[in-house]
Amino acid sequence: MSWALAVGATLTMAVSYFDRQTLASIAPSVTADLGIDGAGYGLLVSAFSIAYLVGSPISGALVDRFGPRRALLVAVVVWTIVAALHSLAASFVMLFVLRIALGLTESPTFPGATATVTRALSPADRPRGFGLLFTGSSLGALLAPLAATKLDALYGWQVAFLVTAVAGLSWIPMWLLLTRGAAARRALDPIVVKVGVPAGGSIGRTAVHPAVLRAVVVVLATAPLASFVLNWSAKYLAEVEGIHKADIGAYLWLAPVLFDVGSLGFGHLATQHAKRFDSPPRVLFTVCGLLALALPLCLVFRGPWPLAVFAGVALAGVAGLFAIFTADMLVRVPLDSVSKAGGITAAAQSLAYIVASPLIGRSVDATGGYSAAIVVLSAIVAPGVVAWLLWKPPPPAVEPAAG
Fold first, then answer.
1. d(CA 352, CA 360)
2. DSSP code of 124?
3. What is the pLDDT of residues 278-322, one digit of tens each?
4. Domains of the chain as residue ranges with CATH
């Protein structure tokens, strides 16, 4: 049952990214039809991230209070409705509002999923569990372009938004089945803190926890690069490589697959390390950081497939970094603050998107290309990786019992 719950959490992430990445997949059609330029598209990407930034810490506190079993169910139902409403967007303003609404309603996803993995698995198994969890995001990012671009080409972008949103409802019966048993309810319902075990405290207290701050540094350094690969690759292929919108999905699948390889592979290796050593896996973390620097190679070796390959290698490195620092962070914070910690790192990711996306758009409009953005986004990865490696981590937390 423990790993089944981890799989359920992974599929929650997949549904979330399937819905949120639909816009990125059909961006050429949507922006052309609604008359949205590069800066405007950057604002649309930021709109989701702004809402996610605001909603994630609050959602994390709510997940800790009510438990991930209920929180994830409610979130999926509500955000599906919002995602379907994207099909009615008739202007930039309307689409901007809907992106904000989607960001707010999807904000419980990562806090709830991380809480599920943390509560379901033992500390030694959690790196592998988080490696599995992060494949959910890439699975959604893989399926979205394959489905949305074909639907867009055949029926229009409005149908693409509607069908991809409704498809996510298949998650609901699976989650109800997985969580109906007493063991699952004990694991996923609100935590009961025993006398003598420190409670996690407020959002503010969790935000300044050293383990959380250490993770946030890496998020801020790597999220802009991941955002570029996920949100701008379709436009790059259309505008730089001249790929027709119906064929873009044929290239976008590789980066999410390599993300999965990095997430599962480095998560497994980090679990093996955790079973043998008490220290963080610094060598693995360094290797992941080096892989994350691969994207600029697409500027040397031109073509759609080099972009797909080097973007995928970079995402594999980012995936490994996320699996390692998430498992390391959550073993060091109180168990009843796991969702808040996950919400804070998700908010940091959104903050990075908010700052980076409009800047990418302005850079593209000003330079007429993507080279400058790719070089700068890759350059900021290294300082975050080095900071995490040099930062002495706090000791692991004592865990209370699930209620």
1. 12
2. G
3. 788 999 999 999 999 999 999 999 999 999 999 999 999 999 999
4. 2-402 (1.20.1250.20)
Which runs of E-coded beta strand occur in 54-207? 191-192
Asked whether the beta carbons of 181 and 1 are under 8 A apart, the reply is yes
Strands 191-192 and 401-402: antiparallel
Q: Structure tokens of 4?
A: 């089944």
* Distance of alpha carbon 33 from alpha carbon 16, whole angstroms: 25
Contacting residues for 138 by C-beta, under 8 A, at least 6 apart: 17, 255, 256, 257, 259, 260, 263, 315, 319
Q: How confident is the model at residue 396 (pLDDT cuts 50, 70, 90)?
A: confident
Q: What is the DSSP string of 270-323?
A: HHHHHHH-SS--HHHHHHHHHHTT-GGGGGTS-SHHHHHHHHHHHHHHHHHHHH
Q: Which of 301, 299, 294 is nearest to 320 (CA)?
A: 294
Listing DSSP states for 100-131 in one string gives HHHHHHHTTHHHHHHHHHHHHS-GGGHHHHHH
How many of the other CB atoms lie within 10 Å of CB of 300?
A: 8
227 φ, ψ (degrees, to nearest 5): -60, -40
Distance CA 308, CA 330 (A): 32
Distance set, CA 47 to CA 61, 102, 131, 308, 402 (Å): 22, 9, 28, 26, 36
- State the helix-helix crossing angle for 157-167 and 27-34, rounded to 10 degrees: 130
Residues 259, 32 contacting (CB under 8 angstroms): no
pTM of the entire predicted model: 0.78
Reduced 3-state DSSP string for 135-171: HHHHHHHHHHHHHHHHHHHHHCHHHHHHHHHHHHHHH
Tokens standing for 210?
């050293």
Max Cα–Cα distance, the chain, nearest Å: 64
Structure tokens at 150: 């074909």
CB-based contacts of 401, cutoff 8 Å, min separation 6 = 191, 192, 194
pLDDT in tens, 242-284: 888 778 878 888 888 898 899 999 999 999 988 888 788 999 9
